[in-house]
Design goal:
Distance between the termini: 38 Å
Cofactor: FAD
Structural class: alpha+beta
Shape: globular
Protein name: 2-octaprenyl-6-methoxyphenol hydroxylase
Family: Belongs to the UbiH/COQ6 family.
Number of domains: 1
CATH architecture: 3-Layer(bba) Sandwich
InterPro entries: FAD-bd (IPR002938), FAD/NAD-bd_sf (IPR036188), UbiH (IPR011295), UbiH/COQ6 (IPR010971), UbiH/COQ6_monooxygenase (IPR051205)
Pathway: Cofactor biosynthesis; ubiquinone biosynthesis
Low-confidence stretches: 363-375
């Protein structure tokens, strides 16, 4: 296969979702889609206590429902029925509930491996083929597309190349696409926790002097922890014994779920806001974390990327121009600009507001949380942001 219509570089959740969104129409049009991925996918789902997970907003659930994938994903999806937002050491708190919003769940927490397994099973090998394990080492523009050179020395031409290889994309850098990199001076510590009490579908956002933390409900009464600390502090917690780690987390989180009983493997991720200055060129799209990487505490990153993915698929399928036409791609980018600006702004402002250890600001936060809990319009607005409905009505 020397030429394909679409080459998706990165076979993770974003790349596979794009392939799925295009698959049915691609079959009718005779398009060939290739996914190029360093790690061989689809080896079978294996439950793991330490599995990484993603919070899918209500809007994302609606997108996967439209794509026919939600019945499969839902088998391992833990619903978020309530969100409890609090500031350590202060009385005020805000509570959001699915019941108040008239939905079954505000969102869902699902293991990444399970989402991937569901996506890979749904892809039709007659339309979507894989090159894996394989890596694109260079990407060169042609008059009518791009030429990909793979790590085995082979080449592949395509009408449209989509870079979906993650936030540290070497191809993005190779093509001279500038990025705005704004470090937060924080590191996210990720782990799974088992509490004494049933989480009952509750998600917690807790803001402390040392940094915000989130505890999200997972299957099997586990909770996914995202704990934001300084780099030095996070490194210390990574090395702490399980008992010492749980004791410190308990002190920061409190006893809303009883005693914290078990912690799994811990991982560290330095945090920064990363935005690509260009997301489209002639015959080229930058998608997912390669386009924008957000702070995880607001849970907006993957949900924004999936909205981008669906919007891109809709633009490609609505166009009568050749695949990769810049006017079509620019229409996609212009259409998503408002969503991206609002979502990135919301995530960044929440992160900065609740990450500063300032007494006057903390008092203002406390009043804000109290007001949020007491004012239905404000509460409704915040809930819609959390549900992924604040920027694109209908999802």
């Amino acid at each position: 296969m020397d030429r394909v219509n679409l080459a998706i570089i990165g076979g993770g959740l974003v790349g596979a979702s794009l392939a799925l969104a295009l698959q049915d129409e691609a079959r009718k049009r005779g398009w060939q889609i290739v996914m190029i991925e360093p790690f061989t996918p689809g080896v079978g789902y294996q439950p793991s206590y330490d599995a990484r997970s993603t919070a899918l907003s209500y809007g994302t659930q609606q997108i996967y429902q439209r794509l026919g994938l939600w019945p499969a994903i839902s088998q391992r999806a833990e619903p978020i029925r309530q969100i409890h937002v609090s500031d350590q050491g202060r009385f005020a708190a805000a509570r959001l509930s699915a019941e108040d919003e008239g939905v079954a769940a505000l969102g869902y927490v699902v293991e990444n491996a399970w989402i991937g397994e569901c996506l890979w099973r749904a892809l039709d090998p007659d339309v979507v083929t894989w090159r894996s394990p394989a890596e694109v080492v260079s990407l060169d523009p042609l008059a009518d597309g791009y030429r990909l050179t793979l790590d085995d020395g082979s080449t592949l031409d395509c009408d449209l190349a989509v870079i979906a290889e993650g936030g540290r994309s070497s191809l993005r850098e190779q093509l001279g696409i500038q990025v705005r990199h704004t470090p937060y001076g924080q590191t996210a510590l990720i782990a799974n926790i088992t509490p004494q009490d049933a989480h009952a579908g509750q998600a917690f956002e807790r803001f402390t002097a040392a940094g915000p933390l989130a505890l999200l409900p997972l299957a099997d009464n586990r909770c996914a922890l995202v704990w934001t600390r300084s780099g030095e502090d996070a490194a210390r917690l990574l090395q702490a014994s399980d008992a010492d780690f749980l004791a410190e987390l308990q002190q920061a989180f409190g006893y809303r779920l009883g005693a914290l009983q078990q912690v799994g493997a811990r991982y560290l991720y330095p945090l920064a806001l990363v935005e690509a200055a260009e997301q489209v060129r002639d015959h080229l799209v930058v998608l997912g974390n390669a386009a924008h990487s957000l702070h995880p505490i607001a849970g907006q990153g993957y949900n924004l990327s999936l909205r981008d993915t669906l919007a891109l698929a809709e633009c490609l399928l609505a166009s009568t121009a050749p695949l990769g036409d810049l006017t079509t791609l620019q229409r996609y980018a212009d259409g998503q600009r408002s969503d991206q600006l609002r979502t990135v702004g919301f995530s960044d402002q929440v992160t900065r507001l609740f990450s500063r250890d300032d007494k006057l600001l903390a008092a203002g936060r406390s009043l804000g949380l109290l007001g949020l809990d007491m004012l239905p319009p404000a509460k409704r607005w915040f809930a819609r942001q959390a549900m992924g409905l604040g920027t694109r009505a209908g999802y």
